[in-house]
Amino acid sequence: MSLYKNLFKQTAIYGLATVLPRMLSFLLVRLYTGILPTAEYGEVSILLSWMVFFNVILSYGMETAFFRFYNSEKDKQNVIATTTISIFWSSIFFLFGALIFRNSLAAWANVDVQYITYSIWILALDALVIVPFSKLRANQRPIMYAVIKIGNVMVNLILNIFFLLFLPKLAASHPNSFIDNLYIEHYEIGYIFVANLLASLLTLIVLSPNYFHLNRKFDKELWKKMMKYGLPILVAGIAFAVNEHFDKILLGYLLPENIAKSEVGAYSACYKLGLFMVLFATAFRLGIEPFFFSHSGNENAPKTYAVITKYFVIMGSLILLSVIVFADVLKFLLLDNKAYWEAMKVVPLIILANFFLGIYNNLSVWYKLTDKTKIGAYISIVGAILTLVLNYVLIPKYSYYGSAIATIAAYGSMMIISYILGNKYYPIPYDMEKIGAYLGLSILFSAISFYGFRENYYVGISLLLAFMYFIYFNEKETLSRILNTKKN
Question: InterPro entries from the entry (predicted)?
Fold first, then answer.
């Protein structure tokens, strides 16, 4: 039981490092949607979607490779040095190469070159902190990890509030001053990226000592092994980026030009209500990934992974139903502008899709532990192909609702494929009867609440309480053991 307590303690801290910044990001979404028209927020969303692709490319699977070899190699400092040097030089080459071609990139993306320049710098700075953050996780320093992550978002939030809310007022009240010269009218999108850039720069400065304490040289042979392990993860990462973000880009291309960015803006804003599931799944993954590798040699590892996955599904099912029951309350907290509410109908699909993704991440332990990351890449490619095909087919007719259907189809397929292949290559004794019951019942209750009795909280809360009792009835023995352990 102490093993699980230690795991959940670390997951809770990583959860704080994930939840608090994302909750602060909630404020940013409310700020943006309150100031920006749907079309301008759509433009920001498209730019950020492209940045996700380059974030994946600039890490090229090295983050997961770092954990794999940090736990398997005796010389851990050698792993740190090799990974750090690799990421450093690839980031520098990207920075200078992208800056040289920034005008061409801006013309191709139909975006102001200034926004492209800011994005290039942000991407390079974020890539340079990949290894320092991974090192904190590998050395089980979740508190330091949390402090720096939260600090980054706090700086970004404060700068956004200053640039978008206070700077215009200060400039108006102090004409011909330094503040007035600092302010640029109708430059809201630019200020969003400037704030992000300054926050990323400060984060790198805080973590920069990691670059001055390398006591090993670049190990070419180790790097080759890490690249062989990591490149399939890069492919999987690109496929994930397609699944998660390419729908916004395709909406911009496939819808009529006069409504495209407005539709993207509304869809992207309501998509954020899936944040609660993303927070849970991400926090769990951050805590669980080092645990999976460090306990892979234990003879009871498969049974442990099965128990962990079951409780992930229990918690995820509860979050799924809770968020969907109260979705129309949460929209008041997140979206200040009613123009964005038109896309609320996609919220249940997006939350469920992210739940499927979280389950897939838990199931994917088999190909990471057996070094079959190529299969993981193939699974992700299948999901990406589904995303692209379904978006192309459904967007012209159903707009962003078609994108939501494509997302849930992609993640659901990946989850099922990973489970089937995992049984073949690394059998784990999942309690499928209970997992299926929790998942199926939460989906049924969510559909009844949102599509049958939306905003009828007598029905919604009753369904939520019934589901909580169902969990208690099935898990009361385990809960009793945990409570007795605490008393003792």
Answer: Poly_Biosynth_Transport, Polysacc_synth
